[in-house]
Amino acid sequence: MDRGAAIAGSRAHRRLHATPRLAGQDASNDRANSINLVVRSMSLWTDKLNFKAAGGTGFEWHQDAPYWTPVSDSVAEMPNVMVALDRASEASGCLRGIRGSHLGGAYPGKQDGSPLAGFYTDPACFDLTAAVNFEVNAGDLIIFDPFLVHGSTGNNTSNRRRALIVTYQPADQPSLKSGRVINL
Ligand SMILES: O=C(O)CCC(=O)C(=O)O
Questions:
Q1: Cα(72)–Cα(57) distance, rounded to whole angstroms?
Q2: CATH no. for residue 119?
Q3: How far is the CA of 107 from the centre of ligand 1 (A)?
Q4: Is residue 179 part of a domain?
Q5: Whose alpha carbon is nearest atom 7 of ligand 1?
Q6: The predicted structure's pLDDT at residue 143
């Protein structure tokens, strides 16, 4: 089965279609509450499996949008859908995000001279006290904006923390890695 068909047939994808707000039945312009997504006409931008083993490291605070802006004009319409494959708690390094940070556009990268500094968001640009932990059970979905400042800590438990992240985009657009159009 090809990748597009596998995602379109997945339980997570069917759940997404069944969500009224995302299916376009509640057309809200409030970007803080809903991403402008019409699920009947979309394609795959990218997908990845994030395996965080027991004792595994975290992800520093960053936005996804700045990575993708140079290679796509559709970044404002690229919701990330994270499917929890295991229960994720603060202790096991669940996803966390800075409330409201997706509304401020692309922030500059860190400039502290550390390796890869520019890949991470300058901490002066967001309010760490607005951080929210997204603790989830296996099978839960977290849908988040590509401009959200997000990351996670290391996994300090003896259990693995696995998640699938699928990023959608409007239909008929080439996907990030293969350049092929994978309409869903
Ligand atoms: O898996 C996580 O905890 C965070 C993932 C993340 O930030 C990313 O893949 O961009």
A1: 29
A2: 2.60.120.620
A3: 18
A4: no
A5: 151
A6: 97
139-175, pLDDT tens digit by residue? 999 999 999 999 999 999 999 999 999 999 999 999 9
pLDDT mean over 83-106: 97
Q: Give the span between the Cα atoms of 141 and 73, in whole angstroms.
A: 26
176 inside domain: no
Cβ atoms of residues 134 and 96 within 8 Å: yes
Which residue range(s) make up the domain with 97?
45-169
In the chain, pLDDT over 90 holds for what percent of residues? 73
User: Residue 37: is its pLDDT beyond 60?
Assistant: no
Distance 51 CA to ligand 1 centre (A): 10
Residue among 46, 49, 95, 136 whose CB has most ligand 1 atoms within 8 A, to mutate: 95
With the most atoms of ligand 1 within 8 angstroms of its CB, the residue from 57, 59, 153 to mutate is: 59
Distance 50 CA to ligand 1 centre (A): 7
What b-and-e string marks burial along 144-169, b requiring 16 or more CB atoms within 10 Å of the CB?
bbbbbbbbbbbbebeeebbbbbbbbb
CB distance 50 to ligand 1 below 6 Å: yes
- The total of structural domains in the chain comes to 1
Residue 175 belongs to a domain: no
Mean pLDDT, to the nearest integer, of 21-37?
46
Higher-pLDDT residue of 35, 184: 184
